Every structure is written in structure tokens, then in C-alpha cells.
Amino acid sequence: MAPDPVPTTVPASTELLQPRYFTWEEVAQHSEPEKESWLVIDRKVYNISEFRRRHPGGHRVLNHYAGQDATDPFMAFHINKDLVRKHMKCLLIGELAPEQPSFEPTKNKALTDEFRELRATVERMGLLKANHLFFLLYLLHILLLDVAAWLILWIFGTSLVPFSLCAVLLCTVQAQAGWLQHDFGHLSVFSTSTWNHLLHHFVIGHLKHHAKPNCFGKDPDIKMHPLFFALGKVLSVELGKQKKKHMPYNHQHKYFFLIGPPALLPFYFQWYIFYFVFQRKKWVDLAWMLSFYVRFFFTYMPLLGLKGLLGLLFLVRFLESMWFVWVTQMNHIPMHIDRDQNVDWVSTQLQATCNVDQSAFNDWFSGHLNFQIEHHLFPTMPRHNYHKVAPLVQSLCTKYGIKYKSKPLLSAFADIVYSLKESGQLWLEAYLHQ
């Protein structure tokens, strides 16, 4: 369920001599994060109470599955599963009783079985292995854009048109580099030998999002409910019935443009990154982050002066913020948002996630996050293989009557606004009439 732990020696005395048997009801009673917590993987019951604080993926993602079956997220998030199982022996307290089913009543057994067969097929096809040439060429195109941005100012001067074009190119560099970091977070930090400290905090947050997408209280990406936005048809009505009004939610589709994309990267995001590394005393990370600003200063200061330099930096961050927010929210905000219903892995991901139609531009613009469904079902799959597994996922959805949503890019953007407007209106009706 998280990056593979650093290998430790497990005393033989910790292994079970005689297995204890449990029922699903007994497991479900150990779901409180503040108390003793259990979870199930491949019918084996593990006590995660002491381990969760040492869990490389953070304690919260384990808490998400406390009292539940965690087999599928375990399979999805770990690369070297055999090694992880070896070091889980010290947590093993028993297994499900023989008469107990392998699945909880809330989960679709047939769908889960077939998805696990699909995952085994994907592994045999080698679709979880990265093509290093793809990422090398991707990095090269980022570097070329970076050089082109500087050359524009050097050759054409610092008037409005070349200045704006330079900002757009640098924004593109930052956005594409962000998607590349996203890839490294999934393809590297989930292995046993590599841990990218700079991305550690944000990968953990993304891991929690993947584990329970659009689940209120578990997905950090919807923490803006109810402080700023009323999200989802269920939660917005619930908020209205409780007579809560933190914001004028019936106008949230309008003020989203004011407090959403524009503010994220220029202010909050940049400040929070530095705050985090200072708090955790990540001095190497701090030096790496500062190196960007040092390089930016010495590259553009001679051309722009201090005021022009600060203006360029702010404009780039502003544009990057708009790009980042719209791309990351188009796949989830319009989808089902509710509390955790403990449904099966496939249903959990599909009800909270949609795709954007494939095209060369959409693939590039979104960093292949237009294949959000495949990205969620197979979080360690390299992005260049999403289009290969997509037809298999669509076939599975068709067989089990699950809606596989894919839409044009502009429609996906518009649906963010439409969904905010709809949930805001639902909140208002419940607030006034209940």
C-alpha cells in the first residue's frame, strides 16, 4: 500500500506458530486510527497499530484501510511484493477463518477476480516496465524549451511580446517538468532501493489520493470541502441540511476562478514547500530547490533587471498554477464524491475518475493524465503504456456495466464549473428548505 519499506531483520519468534482465525466482523471492529487497527491482505490479518508510524508511505494511507481488505491497493502500490511480504511477517496476527469469504459483502467478487486476472496479464505483457528512451526524449524536449525561452529574450529583446512568449515557454517547461516529477514519484519511490526525498511528502499525499479518491476525510485533494467549496451531490446536500455556510457555495463556480487556480502555485504551494523542508530539516532538498532560483536569477537578471525578473517569475508561476489546477481537477471534481463506502478497488477508482479523449496534444498537455482511469487502476504503470491497457479496461467496464467516462478536453474543463454550480445549487436548496 505504499513505497516498499527499508529491509529489516524479522526475528523468527515473531512468526505465528499456530494461526488464529478471524471473521470479517472482527476485522471491521478494528478500524479506528486511534485504537488497535487491523487490515487484511490475501486473507491474512495484520495488526498495523505500531507499524503505521514507521510506514514509508505515511500512517494515514494505512488508516484508510483499517478494518478492511487491502489486497488490491497492496498489489497496486508495491513493486517488490515478495520482499514486502517477508517484512510484514512481524505484523501477522492470524488469517480469515476457512468459512469466511475472501471478499467483504460490499465488494464485487466477480469484478475483483477478473481485474486481478487483468493485472496479471498486464504484468506478463511488460506494461509496468518503463521505456527509458521515452523519458530521455521527454527530458530533452523540456531542456530545449528552456533554452528557447532564454534565446527569445536574448535575440528579440525584453519588450512585451518576447517577454510574454518567454513566460509561456517557461510555464510549459515548469508544467512538463512537473509531470516528469510525477512520473519519477510513481516509478522510483515505490521501489525498494530509491527514495526521492524532495518528492517524499507530495508522493505520500498523492498516494492517499490514489488509495481512496474522492472519499471525504481520506482524499487530501478534496480538503477544500467545506471550507471553500461544497463538493459532490451527497456532501453538498448534507452540508445544507446542517445549515452550514462557510462560504456562499451557490456562487462557488464564480469565485473558483479567484481563489482556486490563481492562488495555488504563486502563493500557497511555493510557501508550503519551503515551510515543509525547513520544518523537516531537509537541507539537501532545500539546496536543490534554491538552485532553481539561483539559476533563474543569473540567467535572466542580466536581461531583465530585478523588477523584470520578479515579474517574469510571478507570471510563470501564475500561468503554471492555472495549467496545474485545471488539468488535475478535470478528472475528479465532476465525479462522485462521498464518504468511504468500502467498495472494491475497480469501483472505487471508476466512480471517482474520468478520462479525457486521447490525442497527441491532450497526451502532451496533461502529461498523459488524460488517461486518469488507467493511471488510478495501475499507479506504477509508466504513462507511455496507458493507451495499450485502456481497451482492456474498457472491455472490463462494459462487461460489468460500469460507466467508463471519457470526454473532450474543453468539455472536461467546463464540467469543473458545471459540477461546482450544480453542487452549490443543491446546497442552497437544502439550506433553505430543510
What does this structure look like?
It comes from Myodes glareolus (Bank vole). The strands form 2 sheets. A 4-stranded mixed beta sheet has the order 1-4-3-2. Among the domains are: 94 residues, Cytochrome b5-like heme/steroid binding domain (Flavocytochrome B2, Chain A, domain 1, Roll); 146 residues, no CATH class. The N terminus is likely disordered. It is 58% helix and 4% strand. Strand 2 and strand 3 form a beta hairpin. Helix 7 crosses helix 12 and helix 10 packs across helix 17. It has 434 residues and is mainly alpha-helical.
Largest beta-sheet details: 4 strands, mixed
By DSSP, the count of extended strands is: 6
Order of helices and strands: EHEEHHHEHHHHHHHHHEHHHEH
Which term fits the overall shape?
A: globular
Structural class: mainly alpha
Query: What fraction of residues sit in β-strands?
Result: under 5%
Rg value: 23 Å
Strand ordering within the main sheet: 1-4-3-2
Key features?
disordered N terminus, Flavocytochrome B2, Chain A, domain 1, transmembrane, four-stranded mixed sheet, mainly alpha, lipid metabolism, two-stranded parallel ribbon, fatty acid metabolism, 434 residues, oxidoreductase activity, acting on paired donors, with oxidation of a pair of donors resulting in the reduction of molecular oxygen to two molecules of water
